């Protein structure tokens, strides 16, 4: 899948990164959107996003990926952060079991604030540190299956599966959107001119997604 | 209140000492009353009703050396001239301890403290010529060297007003003491000793008790009301160490040896007593007493250790007698630990032990043996049976004497005991905590901060309160007075109980911190100030004489105090050495546990405040973010991509 130009896209999908602090969400983002990795371990403060446009078939999909700090406490941004998200990467550090054991809590928060149809992938990051692995792949996979989640193990450091993870999510979203659009004939296009892909278009549109050019 | 008052005055233009520390250095040219031209000389020093005795310098050839000190509380406004002469006069009496019969008078001297203070200022060491008793033919009696130092806010052994307790002693006990010599020390760690003191003495009182009683009662009222004494104790302990560097440097070895000696002499029993008290702390006095005798010697040792730890709390050991009871109980647990603790100070423990013993001896009531010699002793003899009972009550806590203790215990008024008990219990825990902390920290005296002192002080106060209450009682003969006393005592006991948080004596607290720093930071450990061990009582006296602190090690009976001080200092030094001055920890090493705790609490508070601030900021930022996300999310786009309009068509 090639990268489309920024201006040339058919859909904007809002995808959020969630998970415990320090699992590598920001580096996954930078790896995917800018092909960068930082060993700087600073914690993310605030909220930010990056975009990357990918081609799925003939459609140009603009992924708008949001990142924030993995804080436990409720934040005022929580609601806004999830609003309009059509995909989520729930990231844990496979070398720290604690980050995996709280996945359920993150899932709950996700479903509390995002739409039920959101596409969620469980991502075990830091697969490059396999020696320090604390979370067996199969265990995570089983959990993902049982909860209807996609699953991949990635390494933002060595880029393993990073692209695949995001693209898989985007594809899944796209598939859902396509299906939905087919179902609702009248909803040709909900024009969301803004970048807020997440805004709910209308009663008919469950998922905010698209901008049709 | 009196304390507060005095303190307040002290701050005034005229420097008004609250205490005077008297160190009996030595005497020379004494007449020989004993065999071979020697005498078993001891000195009794008295200011007002407060009285202390040095140890007996046995077989001294007319030139005994004591180097023992005691601190007296001075009436407020000493310098103003409003103080009655007798309350501001230091009476020095040198006596020869007779094996049988009354002790023999060797000479006496009086020092007008007001005058001395006016002329000589803060401190003066000088020889005073010993004279005959008033009305008697003057003859060459030699002279005595005494160091007199005025100070403010000291506390010392004086705090415990043993004089009140002075009771005529049981003749039997007396005899025993004589025979055994030091024996007294051992039995009388605390309670037991007191008890014995209370026992009716066979001594003859020439003078009418009534006079003395009146005086005492007056004094008593002052003390009990004022609570002044209490505070002074803790402080004085700390202060003293600085002053007498020149006196005697005790070596650990010395202490050890003494210690051994003491052991041989029955000390074990005394130590046992103490220990038991401690252990049973919560229990009634009676129970405690009972326990005392049964306890094995081991415990006594541990007890000593306990004392030591206690000392930490107190910061100074001088008061051992008074403070020991309370503290011991509280610190018992610690004591054991301490025993095993640092090799650096082997002697300290021994010292303490000795200390105790010596103190006990002092405490023990002696019958004043001077036969008809002079009126000077009259005050001593005042003890009446009634007074004894009172004193017994008051003293209940401290009873050291195993022999007498049983009976006396019974005598002790339940009210007093209970009150004291309660006070003790309440404070115990605190003390323990502090002590534990000290143990953990490894810091001892060094760490004693003003705050740290407090806890320690409070126990002392309690005790003092008890003692103070008791002393007045002693003076007061009548049963009627007893009731009054009882009430007084209650108040005194209760007050201490309030203890740390609500300190009735704000002034005192304030002042203490000042004094403490000095003691704490005193660099020279080896030279303990005058605070030396309390000397043993020479003999049983009608009026109990408070033990003095010995400065000199050499005195057979005395000088444990110094040793303890020294040892403490050594410990402190060791602690200090742990940290290099360049080490950031060094600064904290000198803090008291309390201070450290305070510091931690403060830091915690600061942190929590910061956290709160951070939270507020986070919330603020979040709210801003929310608005941004909803209205202009593009600006949240990661900077690298600036210029591209994300999501925007």
TrEMBL record, chain A:
<dbReference type="GO" id="GO:0060627">
    <property type="term" value="P:regulation of vesicle-mediated transport"/>
</dbReference>
<keyword id="KW-0472">Membrane</keyword>
<comment type="subunit">
    <text>Interacts (GTP-bound form) with RAB11FIP1, RAB11FIP2, RAB11FIP3 and RAB11FIP4. Interacts (via the hypervariable C-terminal region) with ITGB1 (via the cytoplasmic region); the interaction is GTP-dependent. Interacts with ITGAV. Associates with the integrin alpha-V/beta-1 heterodimer. Interacts with VPS33B.</text>
</comment>
<protein>
    <recommendedName>
        <fullName>Ras-related protein Rab-25</fullName>
    </recommendedName>
</protein>
<keyword id="KW-0449">Lipoprotein</keyword>
<dbReference type="Pfam" id="PF00071">
    <property type="entry name" value="Ras"/>
</dbReference>
<comment type="similarity">
    <text>Belongs to the small GTPase superfamily. Rab family.</text>
</comment>
<keyword id="KW-0342">GTP-binding</keyword>
<dbReference type="InterPro" id="IPR001806">
    <property type="entry name" value="Small_GTPase"/>
</dbReference>
<keyword id="KW-0636">Prenylation</keyword>
<comment type="function">
    <text>The small GTPases Rab are key regulators of intracellular membrane trafficking, from the formation of transport vesicles to their fusion with membranes. Rabs cycle between an inactive GDP-bound form and an active GTP-bound form that is able to recruit to membranes different set of downstream effectors directly responsible for vesicle formation, movement, tethering and fusion. RAB25 regulates epithelial cell differentiation, proliferation and survival, thereby playing key roles in tumorigenesis.</text>
</comment>
<dbReference type="GO" id="GO:0005525">
    <property type="term" value="F:GTP binding"/>
</dbReference>
<keyword id="KW-0547">Nucleotide-binding</keyword>
<dbReference type="GO" id="GO:0003924">
    <property type="term" value="F:GTPase activity"/>
</dbReference>
<dbReference type="GO" id="GO:0008284">
    <property type="term" value="P:positive regulation of cell population proliferation"/>
</dbReference>
<dbReference type="InterPro" id="IPR005225">
    <property type="entry name" value="Small_GTP-bd"/>
</dbReference>
<dbReference type="GO" id="GO:0010634">
    <property type="term" value="P:positive regulation of epithelial cell migration"/>
</dbReference>
<dbReference type="GO" id="GO:0031489">
    <property type="term" value="F:myosin V binding"/>
</dbReference>
<dbReference type="InterPro" id="IPR050209">
    <property type="entry name" value="Rab_GTPases_membrane_traffic"/>
</dbReference>
<dbReference type="InterPro" id="IPR027417">
    <property type="entry name" value="P-loop_NTPase"/>
</dbReference>
<dbReference type="GO" id="GO:0031410">
    <property type="term" value="C:cytoplasmic vesicle"/>
</dbReference>
<dbReference type="GO" id="GO:0012505">
    <property type="term" value="C:endomembrane system"/>
</dbReference>
TrEMBL record, chain B:
<protein>
    <recommendedName>
        <fullName>Rab11 family-interacting protein 1</fullName>
    </recommendedName>
</protein>
<dbReference type="InterPro" id="IPR000008">
    <property type="entry name" value="C2_dom"/>
</dbReference>
<feature type="compositionally biased region" description="Basic and acidic residues">
    <location>
        <begin position="482"/>
        <end position="491"/>
    </location>
</feature>
<feature type="compositionally biased region" description="Basic and acidic residues">
    <location>
        <begin position="419"/>
        <end position="433"/>
    </location>
</feature>
<feature type="domain" description="C2">
    <location>
        <begin position="1"/>
        <end position="128"/>
    </location>
</feature>
<feature type="compositionally biased region" description="Low complexity">
    <location>
        <begin position="380"/>
        <end position="396"/>
    </location>
</feature>
<keyword id="KW-0653">Protein transport</keyword>
<feature type="compositionally biased region" description="Polar residues">
    <location>
        <begin position="227"/>
        <end position="243"/>
    </location>
</feature>
<comment type="function">
    <text>A Rab11 effector protein involved in the endosomal recycling process. Also involved in controlling membrane trafficking along the phagocytic pathway and in phagocytosis. Interaction with RAB14 may function in the process of neurite formation.</text>
</comment>
<feature type="compositionally biased region" description="Polar residues">
    <location>
        <begin position="188"/>
        <end position="199"/>
    </location>
</feature>
<dbReference type="GO" id="GO:0031267">
    <property type="term" value="F:small GTPase binding"/>
</dbReference>
<dbReference type="InterPro" id="IPR019018">
    <property type="entry name" value="Rab-bd_FIP-RBD"/>
</dbReference>
<dbReference type="GO" id="GO:0055037">
    <property type="term" value="C:recycling endosome"/>
</dbReference>
<dbReference type="InterPro" id="IPR037789">
    <property type="entry name" value="FIP_classI"/>
</dbReference>
<dbReference type="GO" id="GO:0070164">
    <property type="term" value="P:negative regulation of adiponectin secretion"/>
</dbReference>
<feature type="compositionally biased region" description="Basic and acidic residues">
    <location>
        <begin position="442"/>
        <end position="465"/>
    </location>
</feature>
<dbReference type="Pfam" id="PF00168">
    <property type="entry name" value="C2"/>
</dbReference>
<feature type="region of interest" description="Disordered">
    <location>
        <begin position="331"/>
        <end position="535"/>
    </location>
</feature>
<keyword id="KW-0597">Phosphoprotein</keyword>
<feature type="domain" description="FIP-RBD">
    <location>
        <begin position="577"/>
        <end position="639"/>
    </location>
</feature>
<dbReference type="GO" id="GO:0015031">
    <property type="term" value="P:protein transport"/>
</dbReference>
<keyword id="KW-0967">Endosome</keyword>
């Amino acid at each position: 899948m090639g990268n489309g130009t920024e201006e040339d896209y058919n859909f904007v999908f809002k995808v959020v990164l969630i998970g415990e602090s320090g699992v590598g969400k920001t580096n996954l983002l930078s790896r995917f959107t800018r092909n960068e990795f930082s060993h700087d371990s600073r914690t993310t403060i605030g909220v930010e996003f990056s975009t990357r446009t990918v081609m799925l078939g003939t459609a140009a999909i603009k992924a708008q990926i949001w990142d924030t700090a993995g804080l436990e406490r409720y934040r005022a941004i929580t609601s806004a952060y999830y609003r309009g998200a059509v995909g989520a990467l729930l990231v844990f550090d496979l070398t720290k079991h604690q980050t995996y054991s709280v996945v359920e809590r993150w899932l709950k928060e996700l479903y509390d604030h995002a739409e039920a149809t959101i596409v969620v992938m469980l991502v075990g990051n830091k697969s490059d540190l396999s020696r320090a692995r604390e979370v067996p792949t199969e265990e995570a996979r089983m959990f993902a299956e049982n909860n209807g989640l996609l699953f991949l193990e990635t390494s933002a450091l060595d880029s393993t599966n990073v692209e695949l993870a995001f693209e898989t999510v985007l594809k899944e979203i796209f598939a859902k959107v396509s299906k939905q659009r087919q179902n609702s004939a009248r909803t040709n296009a909900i024009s969301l001119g803004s970048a807020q892909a997440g805004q709910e278009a209308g009663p008919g549109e469950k998922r905010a997604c698209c901008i049709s050019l | 209140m009196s304390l507060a008052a005095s303190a307040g005055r002290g701050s005034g233009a005229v420097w008004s000492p609250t205490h005077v520390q008297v160190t009996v250095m030595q005497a020379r040219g004494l007449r020989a009353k004993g065999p071979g031209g020697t005498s078993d000389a001891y000195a009794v020093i008295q200011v007002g009703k407060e009285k202390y005795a040095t140890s007996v310098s046995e077989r001294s050839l007319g030139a005994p050396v004591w180097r023992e000190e005691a601190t007296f509380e001075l009436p407020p406004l000493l310098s103003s001239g409003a103080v009655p002469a007798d309350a501001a006069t230091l009476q020095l009496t040198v006596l020869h301890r007779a094996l049988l019969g009354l002790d023999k008078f060797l000479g006496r001297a009086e020092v007008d403290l007001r005058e001395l203070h006016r002329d000589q200022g803060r401190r003066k060491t000088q020889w005073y010529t010993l004279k005959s008793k008033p009305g008697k033919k003057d003859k060459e009696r030699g002279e005595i060297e005494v160091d007199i130092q005025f100070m403010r806010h000291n506390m010392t052994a004086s705090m415990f007003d043993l004089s009140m307790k002075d009771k005529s002693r049981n003749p039997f006990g007396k005899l025993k003491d004589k025979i055994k010599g030091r024996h007294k020390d051992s039995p009388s760690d605390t309670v037991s000793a007191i008890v014995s003191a209370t026992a009716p003495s066979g001594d003859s009182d020439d003078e009418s008790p009534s006079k003395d009683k009146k005086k005492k009662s007056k004094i008593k009222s002052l003390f009990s009301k004022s609570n002044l004494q209490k505070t002074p104790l803790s402080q004085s302990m700390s202060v003293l160490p600085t002053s007498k560097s020149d006196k005697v440097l005790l070596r650990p070895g010395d202490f050890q040896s003494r210690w051994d000696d003491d052991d041989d002499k029955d000390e074990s029993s005394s130590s046992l007593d103490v220990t038991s008290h401690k252990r049973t702390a919560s229990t009634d006095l009676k129970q405690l007493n009972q326990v005392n005798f049964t306890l094995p010697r081991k415990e006594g040792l541990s007890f000593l250790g306990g004392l030591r730890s206690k000392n930490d709390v107190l910061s100074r050991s001088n008061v051992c007698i008074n403070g020991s009871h309370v503290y011991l109980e509280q610190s018992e647990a610690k004591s054991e630990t301490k025993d095993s603790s640092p090799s650096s100070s082997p002697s300290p423990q021994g010292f303490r032990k000795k200390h105790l013993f010596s103190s006990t001896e002092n405490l023990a009531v002696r019958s004043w043996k001077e036969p008809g010699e002079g009126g000077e002793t009259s005050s001593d003899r005042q003890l009446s049976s009634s007074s004894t009972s009172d004193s017994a009550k008051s003293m209940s806590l401290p009873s050291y004497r195993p022999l007498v203790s049983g009976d006396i215990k019974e005598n002790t008024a339940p009210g007093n005991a209970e009150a004291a008990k309660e006070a003790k219990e309440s404070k115990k825990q605190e003390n323990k905590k502090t002590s534990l902390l000290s143990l953990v920290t490894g810091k001892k005296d060094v760490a004693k901060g003003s705050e740290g002192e407090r806890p320690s002080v409070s126990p002392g106060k309690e005790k003092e309160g008890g003692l103070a209450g008791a002393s007045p009682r002693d003076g007061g003969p009548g049963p009627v007075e007893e009731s009054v006393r009882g009430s007084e005592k209650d108040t005194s006991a209760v007050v201490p109980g309030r203890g740390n948080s609500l300190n009735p004596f704000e002034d005192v607290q304030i002042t203490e911190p000042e004094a403490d720093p000095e003691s704490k930071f005193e660099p020279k450990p080896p030279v303990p100030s005058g605070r030396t061990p309390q000397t043993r009582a020479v003999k049983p006296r009608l009026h109990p004489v408070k033990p003095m602190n010995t400065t000199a090690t050499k005195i057979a009976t005395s000088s444990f105090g110094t040793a303890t001080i020294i040892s403490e200092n050594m410990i402190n030094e060791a602690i200090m050495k742990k940290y290099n001055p360049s080490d950031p920890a060094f600064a904290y090493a000198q803090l008291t546990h309390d201070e450290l705790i305070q510091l931690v609490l403060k830091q915690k508070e600061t942190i929590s405040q910061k956290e709160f601030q951070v939270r507020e900021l986070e919330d603020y930022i979040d709210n801003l973010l929310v608005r941004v996300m909803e209205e202009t999310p593009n600006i949240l786009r990661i900077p690298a991509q600036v210029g591209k309009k994300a999501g925007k068509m």
